[in-house]
Specification:
Chain lengths: 127, 127
Amino acid sequence: MISFDDFIPNDTSPIYLQIILHIKRGIAAGNVVDGDEVPSRRSLSALLGVNPNTVQKSYHILEEEGIIFSSPGAKSCVTIDQQKIALIRAQLLGDQAKEMIHAMKQMRISKEEALATLSSLWEDIPS
Amino acid sequence: MISFDDFIPNDTSPIYLQIILHIKRGIAAGNVVDGDEVPSRRSLSALLGVNPNTVQKSYHILEEEGIIFSSPGAKSCVTIDQQKIALIRAQLLGDQAKEMIHAMKQMRISKEEALATLSSLWEDIPS
DNA sequence: AAAACTGTATTACTTGTGTGACACACCTTC
DNA sequence: GAAGGTGTGTCACACAAGTAATACAGTTTT
């Protein structure tokens, strides 16, 4: 079962997108494997302090992407193979790096300073 | 005058927040100095393909933060000193790095792989 | 069968964005 | 100096997206 303990909500992007991203990152991390259950709409919404419908929206999109499977009354679970996992991981990693680089360049921060900052802060962020 | 040529809209967070971030990054970069004019609501909205009111919302918030100054009929301009600039720069740099590290750790990506990815993609992203 | 869980659909409210109108400042022209 | 045009910021209202509240229907467990 995927964990949401390290879910840190962010007030800039919609919550349903953050939930989707969190699950995809969990998959990329290998924390979630094919057939794994996903938290129920209600339990996750209670944990995150949001409405069940917001979680439903996330799950619905993930279902359309073929990442989770739902059927009325039953628990939803992940349906994904190794190829998809590698693809998602590469995608998320690349996107995140590109966004970071873009932000740094907009601030005219050198490659060296960016790498140094990242390196020095690495241990401070909890896993 | 601050440039929006390298503004890359992103469909995850509200546009007005992205505009604020872009201007703050321009300030952090040193591209914008005290007294510099800021694009008019209409010209910027036309350039970005959004509504003048969306830009207005960004400028209004920046004015509340004491970063720009507006008065009816006159062009709006930036009001900021070196201390504020250093503060904004440190803030944005730290936030961006922390967000990157958090994302990487969620994907169980090692410090080495993260730095290597960033380093190898650096030259590919246009300034 | 009843209870406690599950996913789903309908509806309303809040926030973000779009459309339009207004008022003030500057600059040209008469 | 007065009149008009074009720039500027500001505001009120309408529409769309994100989120919340509630009710409904199926599955599992007891």
